[in-house]
Design brief:
alpha+beta; D-amino Acid Aminotransferase, Chain A, domain 1; D-amino Acid Aminotransferase, Chain A, domain 2; six-stranded antiparallel beta sheet
Amino acid sequence: MILLNGIYYSDFSEVPKEIVSSFIDNPSLSVSIRYGASKIYFWEEHYFQLVSLMRISRMDIPLDFTPDFLSKSIKKIISDFYDIKKSYLISIKVSKSEQITKKLIIPKSNYLIEVIKTGSIFHNKEKYSMDVYNDFKISLSSFNNIEFSFIISLSKIFSFENNLDDSIILDNNNNVVRSAFGEIFCITNNDIKTPKTSKFHRDSVYKYEFIKYLKSLDNYNIIEESFSPFEIVKSEELFIVSVRNGFQSVTSFKKKKFVNHKTSLIYEKFKSFIN
């Protein structure tokens, strides 16, 4: 089920072609949000992130594009057409309705909300293998979202071609940026390390909120800094966090095998915290 500019459609075949084209031909933004336990996770944070990006991109913000209206619309779609007790991925896309011209500098925006059936954010595969993707690296001196998305896509292909579940993406200093499918966290003793956020790489809302949660735990030190894949090999445990794929412990990286004792405890506590 799709909500487009306040109108409901059962699928994209019903959407006017000129509106579909606007998402292909014109500048657009998108965010992914999780729904579970009968609520939208971190809704306000996601909403204000999207609106901030719209302002930076000089996009028109429709009058009905309010947090209250959108959250009620999402919940209405789920309650009317789906099972409110299950988990869903919510995709919100915004595009300029027309090409920019001298006479039309800021065209009206089209917005689209799509509800996608998915597994629980706390689904965890028993085995999860990783390696390093080396073909292309993130250039910190010329970072852009198109390049970033392109490299993520290629790293996913690399993972599948090599019978892996995931792969690690590096920057041009050979430091870890993230994985093909999410944000990386390493555990050694009481330290939890995750790649440092730079001005070139904006953390997802989900990662930001997860780090806030980790910092509330008394028995762990949270370290945000750059590190090489060698640090991963030295780690006791490794896990991945993402909006789309949820919380996933890693069982192997190259020849290194990982346990998940501490990861499992963090996983269960976060599950109680978020729900």
